[in-house]
Amino acid sequence: MNELQPILSFSAVDFWYDENHVENKALQNLTFSVRPGERVGLIGGNGAGKSTLLKLPVALLPVRTGTVQTAGMEITDKTIAAVRRRIGYLFQDSESQLFMPTVAKDVAFAAESSGLSREETACRTTAALSLVQMEAMADKQIYRLSGGQKKLTAIAGLLVLKPDLILMDEPSSTLDPKNRRNLIAVLNSLDCAKIIASHDLDFIYDTCDRVLLLHAGKIAADGPAAEILQQKDLLEHCDLELPLRLQR
Questions:
Q1: What is the pTM of this model?
Q2: Residues ≥6 apart with Cβ < 8 Å to 189
Q3: Cα separation of 54 and 112, whole Å?
Q4: pLDDT, tens digit, for every residue of 85-143?
Q5: Reduced to 3 states, what is the DSSP secondary structure of residue 90?
Q6: Radius of gyration of the chain measured on its C-alpha atoms
């Protein structure tokens, strides 16, 4: 795709949950864009709007006002299938995305469902498992996997469709230190753009070059991760603390 064209853009986006209380906006006047290959950390306190924001590009929630575009396509009933082929979405409870009996069958399911041939599906499944370092687990039953292995399997299920952008909601939650390190290494090896929502600011520091900081549904800061993540007063105003590595 054209590297000058954003893979995702929000323009003056508002969102509210209750039609009877439009004034209670979960997101307010959000305008930003993400370019191919960017690694964006989405941070903010509880209730800041992170999970809500992630659901709009894949139409899990409707855009109330403003526009959201993916690769130049505005999300409509006619474009949503094409949009979802360009974007992978990892739920906070990623285990809920796994429903086939084995790792390989689960990863292959998305490719098969998109109409790819058996040969192409097999090729992409092998490649996706290789990207997340799960080739040796291909025939293992899902229920026998650790939490970290399930997370990586779910990510492979997104990568099999070769998305331009992956949206991740708290990907490091519930992981032990070893699986957390493995996930960081995997994410940093991927070429596609990523938006990673997390309360784990050390994880964001390790995986993202840019940070979007939300507070009360608004963008409080947008800039280089290394700069924003060391602004103690700003983070505390937004109900966050410095990453542990920067605390003294």
A1: 0.91
A2: 131
A3: 26
A4: 899 999 988 888 898 999 999 999 988 988 889 999 999 999 999 988 899 999 999 99
A5: strand
A6: 18
E strand or H helix at 70 = strand 65-70
Residue 65's CB: how many other CB atoms inside 10 A?
13
> Is-contact 142 164, C-beta < 8 A?
no
Alpha carbon 67 to its chain centroid, in Å, reads: 19
Residue 1 in this model has a pLDDT that exceeds 70:
no
pLDDT in tens, 30-39: 999 999 999 9
For residue 110 the two structure tokens come to: 């998305």
In the DSSP assignment, the letter for residue 72 is T
Which phi and psi (to 5°) does residue 193 adopt?
A: -70, 150
Q: What domains appear along the chain, each with residue ranges and CATH number? A: 1-86+165-242 (3.40.50.300), 97-162 (no CATH)
Structure tokens at 37: 């290959």
Exposure of 141 in the CB half-sphere (CA atoms within 13 A): 2
Structure tokens at 48: 């800041």
